[in-house]
Design a protein that fits this description.
Blueprint (H helix, E strand, L loop, with lengths): L2 H31 L12 E6 L2 E2 L3 E3 L5 E2 L1 H13 L2 E6 L2 H9 L5 E2 L7 H4 L2 E3 L4 E3 L1 E6 L15 E4 L3 H10 L6 E4 L2 H10 L4 E5 H10 L5 E4 L7 E3 L2 E3 L3 H16 L2 H10 L16
Helix pairs in contact: 2-8, 2-9
Bound molecules: arginine (ARG).
């Protein structure tokens, strides 16, 4: 070490020491003057997200019992952008909107179609997915359009937009509408021959047909089904949380995260669901 170097070290050491003394001093004063300044940050709140996890590929339970799917990945990414923590709780569709209203869930993600009727009792985020109803029938069925279902037995999940579409077609008191707790149960009934068709969201029907070749189903699309969009739901008036979620949705759409999740589940990137009437139709 040269002489100037050694000298510099000494100076630095002295400066550090006196600085330390100064800090120590002023700290004492600070503590006395403002005792609240160092209060620990409140523990982050965890938002409970309800989902009816019998709706692959949007939400389902894997072999380990974990809730997984497109909707789950979307909400995790949205929460990341919004800087909030979330935990998912399997919540049967039947009671899902009540759970939100009663405050047992903070957010719902469940391939929930934004409808005017639902907007009366809950608030929706900006849309994050486009969908439409799709008909599933046995491969040998003659059904070619929605109208062909007028006098047939149809299975739907209770209280879904599929239920609404079929109710509109056959009338409220039709004995030919069989309502099920979940969409997979309705599809099982189609396989068993208890109903002639199932009407449900296209993404779920396409996924089921693709993964259950043994069921011998085909899909039939119909242009008269109204376009639908999925949104995240929060309790009516929860503007603060809704703003966070909307910002998160905008962020994941603009930075490519949404497209990557879409691609992971649907093979293509983009805003629309997989083609409705596919090769599986014929
Ligand atoms: N999109 C339809 C609706 O909102 C069906 C949603 C059902 N979702 C579910 N996870 N079971 O009515």
């Amino acid at each position: 070490m040269t002489a100037p170097q050694a000298r510099r070290r000494q100076l630095i050491a002295a400066a550090v020491l006196s600085g330390f003394a100064l800090v120590a001093c002023s700290k004492k004063e600070d503590t006395a003057a403002a005792p609240a300044a160092s209060a620990p940050a409140a523990t982050a709140r965890v938002y409970t997200v309800g989902t009816d996890a019998a709706y692959a590929p949007f939400e389902s339970q894997n072999e380990k019992g974990e809730i997984v799917g497109f909707d789950i990945d979307v909400v995790r990414a949205v929460a990341g952008k919004a800087g909030i923590e979330v935990k998912f709780v399997n919540t049967p569709w039947e009671g899902i909107f009540n759970a939100l209203n009663q405050g047992d869930r903070d957010v719902l993600v469940s391939s929930i179609t934004i409808t005017d009727a639902r907007k009366q009792t809950m608030d929706f985020s900006s849309p994050y997915f486009d969908a439409v109803q799709l008909i599933a029938v046995k491969t040998n069925s003659k059904v070619a359009k929605l109208d062909d279902l007028k006098a047939l037995k149809i299975g739907v999940q209770t209280g879904t937009t599929g239920d609404e579409a079929v109710t509109k077609l056959q009338g409220k008191n039709s004995p030919n509408i069989k309502r099920f707790e979940s969409t997979p149960l309705a599809l099982k009934e189609l396989e068993a021959g208890g109903v002639d068709a199932v009407v449900a969201d296209n993404g779920v029907v396409i996924n089921y047909v693709a993964n259950n070749a043994g069921s011998k189903f085909k899909t039939v699309s119909d242009p008269t089904f109204a376009p639908e969009q999925y949104g995240l739901a929060v309790k009516k008036g929860n503007a603060d949380l809704l703003a966070k979620l909307n910002k998160g949705i905008a962020d994941i759409k603009s930075d490519g995260t949404y497209d990557a999740i879409y691609k992971k589940y649907f093979g293509t990137s983009g805003g629309a669901a997989a083609p409705a009437a596919s090769a599986a139709s014929k």
